[in-house]
Structures
1.
Amino acid sequence: MKSQNKRSVGIAIALVGIMLVPATIACGKKTEKAVLAHAPNVPPQLNRSGNAKVIIELETKELKGRLADGVEYTFWTFGGTVPGPMMRVREGDDVEFKLSNHPTSKMPHNIDLHAVTGPGGGAAASLTSPGHSSTFSFKALNPGLFIYHCATAPVGMHIGNGMYGLILVEPKGGLPSVDKEFYLLQSEFYTSGKNGQAGLQAFDMNKALDEKPEYVVFNGSVGALIGDKTLKTKVGDKVRFFVGNAGPNLVSSFHVIGEIFDNVYSEGGSERNQKNVQTTLIPAGGAAIVEFKMEVPGSHVIVDHSIFRAFNKGALGLIVAEGEPNLAVYSGKQLDTVYLPEGGATQTIPADQAQKQMPKTKEERLVAGKRIFASVCQACHMSEGQGVPQAFPPLAQSDFLNADKNRAIKIVLDGKSGPITVNGKKFDSVMPALGLSDDDVASVLTFVLNSWGNKGGEVTLAEVASQRSGH
Ligand SMILES: [Cu+2]
């Protein structure tokens, strides 16, 4: 009797098992494979009505790659890239997730998707040894933008080595349509060598514990959104950024210089809950969706506004808009007048008196030039003229600068964009016109030519004047 009972229980379970299959078909969900996209690309909007069963397949792989110019790192990755690919599903979808760990991996890996409702966000269910695959399923209950990351011990090290990405759960009706969508993810790297030290770098646990990264970057490396990887748009485009912050430690003060976010979905939630935001805070292990319209042409710098991270540790990217200027929105520099605060009012000074204050000798030019360099040029070209790899070319020992004085004058007068090669390195960025007077241009270039191993010489007022009239 007992054994018979057991068998009937077994049969009952088998029947439930069989019945589950037709049940899923009966509720009419079609099955589709998720389209994954590598940053800065975003998977296409889901052009379907209703829900689906979505199959996501992802591979973990450990591989050597570029962290900065001349700096390599052995990244632990989802899908072979840092960040891992972005996924897009819809609220109510059933997701079947298959994680495979490449046979060459040295570590087991798993995945914790913040979009999962369930213990560990899938971590325990997906723990996978090298050369194995694991499958688990979840229902995407909550719409929003979510981080996913590896949660294998030591968790901080798996995240610190590059294992993270974004999954978007669209609300039932989808998101409002825009012209361009981009995927950005900020994270830190704790390398044994100091920032910029060449060669293959190891993970430094002590720096990670102290929360003192050598690199803070967007999309996995210094310069991943600069040069030929600058984000491209047109004037009038509505742009949407899906931004994640994987940490592992720092929060991000996400900002685009010269833009205001028209809409922010704070903390990656599903509500467009904020309007007209300058800087949005993205916690470690969090995300945000920001939207803005490209009103005017030109370059906008994408930064973590904890600003030394941007200009000294790598958290810097560019988005450029092409098109016609809109002078009603932004004029550029219209006027440069003398400002003399003495007596509390602006005065016009007689020309001969003004002339006296202008540097005449080369020595005076060097002094004035140094001051102008510090207040105008240094922000981009750095204090010793060393520049920033991928972003701002060096002025120190610059073969480009030393080869042609008149060309340098023209660049400082008019600005410069388009590809150039300086000391063997390619740059393709934008230097704005700076609105300096002829005298200031002469002084600052005289200073630059006589600094940091450049060839020396002098730039005169007449030389600047002839370049200004020469166009
Ligand atoms: Cu891992």
2.
Amino acid sequence: MEENPDESETSITISNSHLLEEVKKKCRLSARRSTKDCEKSSFRKSFRIDYRLEESVTKSQKGKDGRYINPWPTWKYPSLADVLKWMILEKDNSKIPRCKEELDKELPLVCPYFVENPEQAGMKKGGLRVTWLGHATVLVEMDEITFLTDPIFSMRASLSQFVGPKRFRNPPCTIGQLPKIDAVIISHTHYDHLDYNTVLSLNERFGGDLRWFVPMGLLEWMQNCGCENVIELDWWEENCIPEHDDITFVFTPSQHWCKRTPIDDNKVLWGSWSVLGPWNRFFFAGDTGYCSVFEEIGKRFGPFDLAAIPIGAYEPRYVDFSKFIRKRTFFYVNLFLRILFEYYLPVFGGITCRSYTDLRS
Ligand SMILES: [Zn+2]
């Protein structure tokens, strides 16, 4: 059939204008993206200043006994009487299923799949991928590096593997099955966040190639474990992995405490981590309750692309000894998350209840 030249021209015009619109759209998007990148990169340069010198940031503080303290009025240590009341009188509301079938339904265990060659698999250079490995352990693949948060692969969060809080779900993989890890970030020393056997195993597998970012006061403990590549930081201090100096690890504050033995309360600092890359920003809250410092973090380093935030452990209220996100404050926290984070990953669970909070809530 002979083509009508007018029709053909019209269709070309339509197609061209459509194409033009597409190109314009792409240009607008790319301009927006490069502005965002630019803002990010120009903002990045300011990370090199020492935030501890600023009046407006909350610096770490020690009490008269030389131990770290929480400098916010929102923090309150639970009394011994309250802890005893909780341990003896409170009934377990965690509703953790007792049988495997129910557990598989509520909290299925899925063996993670790690991509060996991200580029071959079509993954982009500046991508962000996280895999929750139970409790506060998250494997983060971000801007060409891979790091772990508070890794625990042991069956118990305890001094001994014979007593103490036990996992109700096994770790979804072994340390041997992990991909190459560039760094580990540690938020504080509680057994469910700093596990001796896991530190030894990771050090055995990756040795000095693995950089450990730890809170102030933990360097000696890490060195006693045989770890050589350890960076110990105070709140607002930063460092990086040598071959990836475009990604900044900042140790940011949180409201919590540290303890591993009856006599070492708060000798080590605790905190959160802000990991700032050229393409993505990741926030790891560690263990924390809500306090005003998160506004300071958001103001300096937000918005984050993804944040791993603790959930649960808010009951019973009179103990609330973890100072986690409470139910009644959850909406405020949500609001704050909306301001600071594009997405968030709720973490915790997998180790026997430390607070009697409904697992499914
Ligand atoms: Zn803790």
3.
Amino acid sequence: MRCPYCRGDDSRVVDSREVEEGQAIRRRRSCSACGRRFTTIEELVLSVVKRSGVTEPFSREKVVRGVRRACQGRPVQEDALQQLAHKVEEAIRSSGMAELPSHEVGLAILGPLRELDEVAYLRFASVYRAYSSVEDFEKEIADLRAAREAEPVGEVADTGSSGE
Ligand SMILES: [Zn+2]
């Protein structure tokens, strides 16, 4: 890393600390040539391995694009897409893997997308899981219904309110 003042290419680290919960390291450096100080940030890069074997950095924007396509015409706000992408990234980072196959990214998208919008979820899943027949959709919809029924619905907690 060259000094931003004199372009000298030699510096020493005077301080380093972890930031973003250990996902990045911030280093304070002192240029050996001019003595001025500057800061560098070293970040853990999540790599996605595509089916072709090519590796590329994980991109939240790419997740948003993929999900946005599935959400066309659905009442889903841009905010919600950003939040979903954030959730996906968190899930991937917390898995502790530095490199993961692209289908794992798709897998991490399915859960939060199902909560966001069921139609968009079906669209996304149909591409991702390469549904080949109406039966595949029927099965997925049956699963959706089952999951919905398994959730407790609107039970109002008894607050044991005032006696007399
Ligand atoms: Zn310098």
4.
Amino acid sequence: MTTATDRFGLAGPVIEISGLHKSFGERPVLKGIDLTVNAGDVVCVIGPSGSGKSTLLRCVNLLEQPTAGSIRLLGVEVTDPDVDIDQVRTHVGMVFQSFNLFPHKTVLGNLTLAQRKVLGRSEAEASAVAMRNLEHVGLADRAESYPAQLSGGQQQRVAIARSLSMDPAMMLFDEPTSALDPELVGDVLAVMRDLAESGMTMMVVTHEMAFAREVGDRVVFMDDGQIMEEGPAAQVIGAPTTERARVFLERVLHPTAVDDSQLGQTEPARPGDPDFRPPDGTGHVPLTVR
Ligand SMILES: Nc1ncnc2c1ncn2[C@@H]1O[C@H](COP(=O)(O)OP(=O)(O)O)[C@@H](O)[C@H]1O
Ligand SMILES: [Mg+2]
């Protein structure tokens, strides 16, 4: 069996994006993105809706064809017309907001399908890989369940296990917890944190600032198709240098904050008040779930 290392050189960055432009018709959506993700890096991408975050991930996964610029994955220029896109894509795991599980297949069936069809694994081998990955996401006991019998959080963990079963060299996450009820978010983030700790190279579009701070090696703030800020999480989230990032972070970290003048309030909220937020401003997500 050939592995990622047979087909790709291992030296150098895992993801190298340079001068990436993407337009839909006349409309520019990515306006010159440069970004390098090294092996084992976790890069969190934040930014307002419509800033191009999904388009960026979709270009990396070749679901969108870049208009200009280059993308190298494990040293291979994937925008080269001679490259076998399907083969490259098998090395890139992608998890979306919607889980896209087959409703008429069991969890195990969902995890073995692409392994057999795309990687040519036997039923036995695919099942063994699937069970190992279900263990990792804490759902080995649900292998025979159907997606509808699982919570949204469990379905998303199944979707992550399905991606991992393809042995990807990198994982892309596009707002994986945005569709979940708040009490289910922590379990999914915990799985992603474990994955990051295991050394997986990850690009994560997320609004979960606590996750970005705790797990992200770097945070990228995008606005209007450009990277406006990039750096360690504590720097970009804790001390953004651009006004646009400051405004965005204020909205995300304090979604219920209203101008004092609108409320006629003069007293700041204190511990115990419903509006009180601790001064570190790390957001609201309970990450430590186990
Ligand atoms: N397939 C498409 N065709 C036309 N416009 C698109 C398409 N996909 C995205 N866009 C536009 O590109 C912009 C960026 O979208 P997107 O990458 O989804 O932003 P984000 O993920 O940051 O919310 C949006 O204005 C969106 O309407
Ligand atoms: Mg998006």
